[in-house]
Amino acid sequence: MSEFVLETEKLEKIYRLGGRSIRALSDVSLKVKRGDFVSIMGPSGSGKTTLLNILGCLDRPTSGKVILDGVDITSVPEKELYKIRRYKVGFVFQTFNLLPYLSALENVELPMEGTGKSKEEMRKRARELLRLVGLAERENHKPLRLSAGEQQRVAIARALANDPSIILADEPTGNLDAKTKYEIIRLLGKLNIEQGTTIVMVTHDSAMASHARRVLFLSDGKLLSKEKIGLLAKEKLACPVCGREVQADHVFCPHCGRKL
Ligand code: ADP
Ligand code: MG
Fold first, then answer.
1. Fewer CB within 10 Å, N side or C side of the chain?
2. Nearest to 230 by CA among 257, 255, 248, 251
3. DSSP per residue, 69-108
């Protein structure tokens, strides 16, 4: 198995609108290792959503390749793409996109429908995931009875339902207040550190982008050659309680749960 979960080669996307063409991406080549947490930062209109939609098979590039888990998804026929969307990628959106008439638990179960899991297995997995995102007590609440941050936690649990190779998050903190933003970005960091979840997040928010392991920059549809090391990859310390490795910016040890 390749160390890269995701590779793109010279991606280009041109939208044609009436007689006009808009070049949304040009020459985007990137590689994402298994277990990485990459944020791609760029201003509004720089092509972030276009890129993420292509990585997640919601859209096709005009030219170039996307290799996901060793499969060139740009050459997969349309009718097969649903399998990749369902099993290989988990999407997290700015607006959560939960179904309002389903409970938190049912929203998390939804992507597992039709995958061959029994009702009991689906329920068990959904409960585990809600526990993982800190919402075990809220499983029967409908989205409207949850805060914005809680709704995004449910959406993150839903994205993990079919154990995807990668989580793709489009401005996941864009609709949240300052405090809740940090809770959600820390949750993504925790999933990356503790579960090894590979994450690609796009955002215009530099403070949020800096919480990843690597920060890339998109400008006018092009990836810049500069790259920054994110907070998640910086300084590591030993937990004074259990001795295991923790990030310098952690408040609680992810292993033993003690306050640092
Ligand atoms: P971002 O997510 O960084 O704000 P987008 O990927 O949404 O950027 O958009 C990149 C560029 O492509 C913008 O100029 C936008 O207007 C254009 N664009 C995005 N989607 C479409 C579309 N479906 N049809 C035409 N132009 C589009
Ligand atoms: Mg966007």
1. N
2. 248
3. TTEEGGGS-GGGHHHHHHHTEEEE-TT----TTS-HHHHH
Q: What 3-state class would DSSP assign to 228?
A: strand
Structure-block tokens of residue 132: 């993982």
Query: Could you read off the pLDDT of 19-71 as tens digits, one per residue?
Result: 999 999 999 999 999 999 999 999 999 999 999 999 999 999 999 999 999 99
Phi, psi of 86 (to 5 degrees): -80, -40
d(CA 50, ligand 1 centre) in Å: 6
Whether 104 contacts 143, CB under 8 Å: yes
What amino acid is encoded at 12 in this protein? E
Q: Judge if the beta carbon of residue 49 lies within 6 A of ligand 1.
A: yes
Residue 49's alpha-carbon distances to 31, 110, 121, 160, in angstroms, are 18, 24, 33, 20
Distances (CA, A) of 191 to 60, 186, 194, 198, 217: 29, 9, 5, 9, 23
Q: Do the Cβ atoms of 209 and 13 come closer than 8 Å?
A: no
Ligand 1 pocket, residue 17 CB under 6 Å? yes
CA distances from 184 to 129, 148, 221 (A): 15, 10, 27
**Which numbered atom of ligand 1 lies nearest the CA of 170?**
2
Burial class from Cβ neighbours inside 10 Å (0-12, 13-18, 19+) for residue 14 reads middle
Fold annotation for 34-60+71-234: Rossmann fold (3.40.50)
| Residue from 242, 251, 47, 83 nearest 165 by CA | 83
3-state secondary structure 47-72: CHHHHHHHHCCCCCCCEEEEEECCEE
pLDDT band at 235 (very low <50, low <70, confident <90, very high): low
Rg value, the chain, Cα: 18
